[in-house]
Amino acid sequence: MKIAAFYENICDGVQATGQGMADVLAELHHCGMDLLYLTPDSWKRDRDSLSCIMEKLDLKIEGMHGFCDFPGNPDTQRYREMIDLAAEAGAGNFLIIPGMYSTGNTKRDLEKMADGVRRTIEYGNKRNLPILMEDFDGIASPYNSIAGLEYFLKTVDGLGCAFDTGNFAMFREDETEAFDLFAGKIRTVHLKDRSNERRHEGDTPFLCSDGKPVYACRIGSGYIRIAEILRRLKNRNYDGNVIVELYAVDPKHVLEDMKDSVLWVKEQLEKE
């Protein structure tokens, strides 16, 4: 198992603190980060400067993720451009977020999303790029719960799971029960922790379906059972990667939290 980090989180921290990207990535690499995870748009914007830094540090791209609006724009070809960029960058997988309920016809929206994911998989196969979906935690997302994600994984052939430890908080579902259900299809893991209290002044609350807020926090410091998830991954001889995700953490503190998170994950992975 190798450790990756969300590049967009790092960018937020670099912008907020004024630190240099090369220095930040070198420090995270020293802590144990070997891979980056990012969007095709970020790669398209920063690939020249980022490629130079990555080459010096021997960093690779774990995967990419991107949005399509298959219900509102079923004929979109955006997924092709995103997959092409991911393949060009040497990404190991691509996570598709196929849209939200938006037209008032939930059955139609769901069918359009599933059809769009099938087309994405077909094109991904041509580029030798596995296509994944996660338990995306938007309230208008039909795959924001165990049952919602299970629908797509059962309905769409060839679809893999990007398991997000923190997104099952949307409906207060048990992340370990979700792990046991999806373990056979997990191809990458997003490590996201949650806290019932704000850790930094600028942390952004996330509202669960019950209307109560939770907050993102440094990995290993919240109530999500991430150490147990990592233990179960090791017991299954999981050969994928894990990705530190700190969206909604105060940008002024996200880099220190990212460093501490990578160190904590590295420590967990090295345990017998």
Question: Which short descriptors sum up this protein?
Answer:
single chain; about 270 residues; alpha/beta; TIM Barrel; eight-stranded parallel barrel; three-stranded antiparallel sheet
Description:
It contains 9 helices and 11 strands. The protein has helices at residues 7-17, 21-31, 40-57, 78-89, 106-126, 146-155, 175-182, 226-235, 254-270; strands spanning 3-6, 33-38, 60-67, 94-97, 131-134, 160-164, 186-191, 193-195, 205-207, 213-217, 242-244. The protein has an 8-stranded parallel barrel, surrounded by 7 helices. A 3-stranded antiparallel β-sheet has the order 8-10-9, with no helix packed on it. The chain starts with a strand and ends with a helix.
The gist of it:
This protein has 272 residues and is α/β, with parallel strands linked by helices. It has helices spanning 7-17, 21-31, 40-57, 78-89, 106-126, 146-155, 175-182, 226-235, 254-270; strands at residues 3-6, 33-38, 60-67, 94-97, 131-134, 160-164, 186-191, 193-195, 205-207, 213-217, 242-244.
